Every structure is written in C-alpha cells, then in structure tokens.
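wait is this the right file?? whatever heres the structure
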C-alpha cells in the first residue's frame, strides 16, 4: 500500500533536477542517467561539493560525517539511497520513479 501523500516522489524529482543542474554539459531536455558514475556525468570533486551544499540547502539537511565517503558519491543513485536511508529515515529498497517520470505541471 502506497501513501499518496508521501513527499518522496517530489523530493526525488527535485533531486534529479539538482543533479541535472550540476552536470556541466547537460543534454537539452534530457534527464541524466542517475545510475552512471558521477565522473561519467561530468561531475568532478568540486561538483560533488556543490551537490552537497545544494542538497543541504534544498532539503534543510546536514550530511553526517559517515556519509561523506566516496562510496556514497559513486553515482547519483547511491547518493539518493544514502539520503533516503540515513537522512530521511526511509528504506533504500522502497522504489521511487525516475525524475523523468514525474507528472507534468
């Protein structure tokens, strides 16, 4: 049973937009493949620092030290899973739709 009032899909849609905005050369109108390594998306170490800052501001969160490890930042999806599991208190196995599947406004 799903909770239609859950903010997770909206948070995930915004997360996808944050990643897209961080990509140095995003393809016009295309969503980045969140399963690709950060480097393959053109996101370098400074881009990852920017992601942390923007995510903290956007979601009103502080990254705990145990999340500031390379494994968490391997791909956008590993970062999202860490955010859900550790910061949002949600099980990382609960599926959410890809940002490109969000409803049109």
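ok assuming it is, sequence goes like this
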């Amino acid at each position: 049973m799903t909770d239609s009032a859950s903010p997770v899909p909206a948070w995930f849609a915004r997360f996808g937009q944050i990643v897209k905005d961080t990509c140095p050369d995003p393809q016009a109108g295309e969503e980045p493949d969140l399963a690709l390594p950060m480097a393959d998306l053109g996101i370098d170490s400074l881009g990852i620092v920017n992601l942390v800052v923007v995510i903290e501001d956007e979601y009103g969160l502080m990254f705990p030290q145990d999340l500031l490890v390379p494994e968490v930042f391997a791909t956008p999806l590993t970062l999202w899973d860490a955010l859900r599991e550790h910061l949002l208190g949600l099980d990382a196995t609960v599926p959410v739709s890809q940002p490109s599947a969000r409803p049109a406004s």
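The longest helix spans residues 8-22. so i think its the right one actually
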